[in-house]
Amino acid sequence: MEDYIEVRMPSDNPWIKGPLVKADRALATRIAEVAIATAESYRGKFNTGWMYDKPVFNAVVDMWPEDDYEREAMFRAVQIVLSQDVNYSDWHDGKYAAYRCFKTRNAYATPGFVAAKRYSEMMGT
Asked: What CA–CA distance (Å, rounded) separates 89 from 66?
């Protein structure tokens, strides 16, 4: 297994893929483990996905790279780590809850996502 995870960064143009960058696999795995443990500690206490965001992200806030670009790549790398072997049948599962936090956060951080989501909601598509 390689020491890094290759992630695709977003582009300002939705028709063009962003660059591939490398993120430290060990750090992404540590962040994912803390996120999973935190989400699992709230098992059954929340009935909506966004409620997991604050405790999960607060638990890992001090683990992020200093550089903004590296931090953004790490958010995406952690989502990749969390996406492996997720138990989708258990909504309260710590790994699934943490995965939802990162997946939603990464979607909203993608340029154009908010406008596209708003348009989709208005048009019913």
From this structure: 36
Strands 4-8 and 20-24: antiparallel
Residue with tokens 């990464």: 106
Contact 82, 98 (CB under 8 A): yes
Cβ–Cβ < 8 Å for 28, 77: yes
Alpha-helical (H) ranges within 1-123 are 25-41, 53-60, 68-82, 94-108, 113-123
Rg over alpha carbons for the chain, rounded to the nearest Å, is 15
Neighbours of 114 (CB within 10 A): 12
- The Cα angle at residue 112 between residues 109 and 115, in degrees rounded to 5: 110
- Percent of the chain with pLDDT strictly greater than 90: 66
9 dihedral zone (left: phi>0; alpha: psi -120 to 50; beta): beta
The whole-model pTM stands at 0.86
pLDDT tens for residues 16-62? 888 999 999 999 999 999 999 999 999 989 988 889 999 999 999 99
